[in-house]
Amino acid sequence: MQHFADVLEIKSDEEKGVAEMIVGRVIPGNSHTQDGTPLYGAHYRMRLRRKHEGFWQLTWSEYRPGWFNANEAPRV
C-alpha cells in the first residue's frame, strides 16, 4: 500500500539540531474539497535529529487519524 503526504509545517532548532514536522496524509480520489482546498485524511507528527550536515534522522512519529482541510491543519 502506498501512502502520499504533504509536509504542512516544519520547525527546527538549528543550535540543538532537532526539528518537529507535521505531515498531512493525502487520500487518492479525495484529496481536495469542492472549492479546491487540499484535504487530508490524517496527519503524522514527527521528530527529527540532525545526524550531520544535510542529513536528518526520524526519531519519533505518531499517526493521528481524522479529516481536515489545509485551512484547519494541526500546528507543531
Short description:
By secondary structure, the protein is mainly beta. The protein is built from no helices and 4 strands.
Q: What would you note in describing this structure?
A:
The chain is mainly β. It has one domain (5-69). 0% of the residues lie in helices and 63% in strands. The protein contains no helices and 4 strands. The chain has a 4-stranded antiparallel β-sheet with strand order 1-2-3-4, with no helix packed on it. Strand 1 and strand 2 (18-26) form a beta hairpin. The protein is elongated, with a radius of gyration of 14 Å. The two termini are 27 Å apart. The model has no long low-confidence stretch (mean pLDDT 95). This is SnoaL-like domain-containing protein. It comes from Pseudomonas fluorescens.
How would you summarize the topology of this molecule?
Layout (H helix, E strand, L loop, with lengths): L3 E10 L4 E9 L12 E14 L2 E15 L7
Antiparallel strand pairs: 1-2, 2-3, 3-4
Rg, please?
A: 14 Å
Q: Main sheet: which strands, in order across?
A: 1-2-3-4
What is the overall shape? Answer: elongated
What is the number of domains? 1
Strand content: over 45%
Protein name: SnoaL-like domain-containing protein
Organism: Pseudomonas fluorescens
List keywords for this structure.
four-stranded antiparallel β-sheet, 4 strands, 76 residues, elongated, mainly beta, SnoaL-like domain-containing protein
